[in-house]
Amino acid sequence: MAKKKAKKPSYACRACGAQFARWMGRCTTCGEWDTIEEQAAAPSTASKERTGGARPMRIGDVSTEDARRLPTGIGELDRALGGGPVRGGVALLGGDPGIGKSTLLMQALAALAARDESAVYVTGEESASQVALRARRIGGAGMEAVRILATTELEDAEAALSAEKPAVAVIDSIQTLRAASLSSAPGSVSQLREVAARLIDLAKRHGIALFLIGHVTKEGAIAGPKVLEHLVDTVLSFEGDRSHAFRVLRATKNRFGPAQEMGVFEMDREGLREVPDPSALFLAERPEGSAGSVVVPTAEGTRPLLVELQALVAPAVYGNARRVVSGLDGNRLAILLAVLDRKAQTRVLDRDVFASVAGGARVDERALDLALAVAVVSSYRQRAVPADLVVFGEVGLAGEVRAVPRPGPRIAEARKLGFRRVLLPKTNAERLTKKEKKGLTLMPVGTLAEALETALD
Ligand code: TYD
Ligand code: MG
């Protein structure tokens, strides 16, 4: 345990983690109101990484055995993690309440228990019987063998994990645990920091693959200081629209693998099911030949994914044009509408514009720009794009269409799903190999105006 310094209160912002010598009503760093709270002066020294020897080693001599990985066998989860959980590695899982965080990790524990790995689930949210009830309903090999500890005391969790030394453990949730050494409330900045630092230390010492579940705020950030995200090895977010069954697990940070890798699941009565071919699922209900609908091959992780983008342009009623988006960036839409107005002579600025990614998926890439612009104009002109067309490309402020990364895999995924025409940036098209272009009609464009003419002639 860390020795406490002499008591002198210090303060930290719950939203951004900035530290202050006195209390204030508003954080001067991030501008949030009412987020400053008192914290214990000395954060635990337990968080200091143990590097095991002070002498530098040759890179060639450092062991990197992959035996430290514990693949769960749940392919979509392992994929998002870059191959599976890592012994001694700590992952923070964030997501809206009710999205399926507890379900996902319970299934992961069961899968590992079925492979004879010991698994412990620490719950501060629900009682052991509530957790067991749900676990039995989900079922699956290994579920019976998962151990549950219901507690809100950090010391209990530490003692249990130190004694048990499980291969894998879940803390549900980090906000509900409380270190007795600190007087502040569970979920406060100092508690979160202390709890996280001590659990991370424990995981590293015993080689436990540890998952911390974290609540998210309305804005979608993991509640508590950003510090948490810096402390852990991997940050996962579980996303989806609760009115849909699809869930996307995304690694936004990963020290052990590629970031932005994602796994796709579907929630049903027996818990989460893997979706090995998500493109087909996201396009299942596409209204072919309908104005405003455009298919985009996205490629945020290493896996390309086709999604349907829908736009609806309608007369504004109150003179104040509205923009409503779901699953995509509203600022991007605003910029594109201005570019359409100034560079492509499409007067949509005074209209209501609604845009969404169908099926509850979320896309956060510039490659979406061109498809979004085409969808808006398609709805505006009441003209559908060809049913076998996919569109991707970034749009610049001058109305130019710019290259995006990984055009090859995007096109390959479109071909696999039966699409035949590709509207894409000229600079991407020029660099494609014969094999990548095979069997497809490419429609390379250099400007947004050209793109509209080509897609909606
Ligand atoms: P849960 O894992 O408790 O979400 P979180 O931990 O992120 O808050 O999942 C809660 C929701 O999932 C709940 O609304 C019911 C639904 N659900 C199913 O549809 N099927 C199932 O088998 C389970 C366990 C939950
Ligand atoms: Mg839960």
Helix coverage percent of residues? 25-40%
CATH superfamily of the largest domain: P-loop containing nucleotide triphosphate hydrolases
Task: Provide mean pLDDT, rounded.
Answer: 89
Shape: globular
Largest sheet: 9 strands, mixed
Chemical compounds bound to the protein: thymidine-5'-diphosphate, magnesium ion
Low-confidence stretches: 1-5
Strand order of the largest sheet: 6-5-7-8-4-9-10-11-12
Can you count the helices?
A: 13
Percentage of β-strand residues: 15-25%
Radius of gyration: 25 Å
> How many domains is the backbone divided into?
3
Briefly note the structural class of the backbone. Answer: alpha/beta
CATH-level-2 architecture of the largest domain: 3-Layer(aba) Sandwich
Q: How many angstroms does the end-to-end distance come to?
A: 71 Å
> What is the CATH first-level class name of the largest domain?
Alpha Beta
Q: Would you report the number of β strands?
A: 21
CATH topology name of the largest domain, in short, is Rossmann fold
Structural overview:
The protein has helices at residues 75-80, 101-113, 128-138, 154-164, 189-206, 227-231, 278-283, 330-343, 368-381, 407-416, 426-430, 434-437, 448-455, and strands spanning 10-13, 19-20, 36-39, 90-95, 119-123, 147-150, 168-172, 209-215, 234-239, 246-254, 262-268, 271-274, 293-298, 305-315, 323-326, 351-357, 389-391, 394-395, 401-402, 421-425, 441-445. The protein has three domains: 9-39; 72-276, P-loop containing nucleotide triphosphate hydrolases (Rossmann fold); 281-455, Ribosomal Protein S5, domain 2 (2-Layer Sandwich), CATH 3.30.230.10. The longest helix has 18 residues, at 189-206. Mean pLDDT is 89; it is low at 1-5. The protein is α/β, with parallel strands linked by helices and 457 residues long. The protein is 27% helix and 24% strand. The strands form five sheets. It has a nine-stranded mixed beta sheet with strand order 6-5-7-8-4-9-10-11-12, sandwiched between helices. A four-stranded mixed beta sheet has the order 13-14-16-15. Strands 2-1-3 form a three-stranded antiparallel beta sheet, with helices on one face. Bound molecules: thymidine-5'-diphosphate and magnesium ion. Thymidine-5'-diphosphate (TYD) is lined by residues 95, 97-103, 134, 137-138, 267, 269-271.
